Amino acid sequence: MAAGLNPAELEALARQVGEALRQRHEMLATAESCTGGWVAQCLTAIAGSSAWFERGFVTYSNQAKMDMLGVLGGVLEEHGAVSEATARAMAQGAVAHSRAQWSLAITGIAGPGGGSVAKPVGTVCFAWARRDGGCLATTRHFGGDRDAVRRQAVAFALGGLLEQLHA
């Protein structure tokens, strides 16, 4: 994804998400692992975001994913922390543990270490959930250093949410 690679582009994307949520009178919760709250930071940098941003969970460890979002240990054991199954569970947990109608979740390997042949550095799993039960997940592979992977993940997560809000 080319958009959202600099601060001004990320801010513009976050503003578009906020405006779409505001028009729908809906709220968002985030569940972030490898991005460490970067999505929440982008959203809350916008004045008035409390009208549409409900809360953010930074669940970097597996224990945090279980404690704060209700991700089942079996999901983590079977699929790993970096998986679409875990991203779905995180997104569904964020909706369940908030007043938001929407959530997005990010879990991945930003590097420089931690990758494997099956899940190389730059592998990031995303999920977007609706309170009504819909949930979409996908995996992307981003290049660059740790900062670049995380920045691209933030942009992709916001862009994916925006697409769903306009669907």
Can you characterise this structure?
The chain has a five-stranded mixed β-sheet with strand order 2-1-3-4-5, with helices on both faces. The protein is 44% helix and 20% strand. The chain is globular and about 45 Å long. It contains six helices and five strands; from the N terminus they run H-E-H-E-H-H-H-E-E-E-H. It has helices at 7-24, 38-44, 62-69, 73-79, 84-96, 146-166, and strands at residues 28-32, 53-58, 102-108, 123-130, 135-141. Helix 1 runs parallel beside helix 6 (146-166). The two termini are 19 Å apart. With 167 residues, the chain is α/β, with parallel strands linked by helices. It has a single domain (7-166), classed as Maf protein.
Brief write-up:
The protein is α/β, with parallel strands linked by helices and 167 residues long.
Helix count from the secondary structure assignment? 6
Uncertain runs = none
Q: Based on helices, strands and strand pairing, what is the structural class? A: alpha/beta
Overall mean pLDDT score? 95
CATH topology: Maf protein
How many strand elements?
5
Q: In CATH, what is the class?
A: Alpha Beta
Helix content: 40-55%
- N- and C-termini, Cα separation: 19 Å
Instruction: Tell me which CATH architecture applies here.
Output: Alpha-Beta Complex
Order of helices and strands: HEHEHHHEEEH
Strand content: 15-25%
What is the count of distinct domains?
1
How large is the radius of gyration? Answer: 15 Å
* CATH-level-4 superfamily name: CinA-like
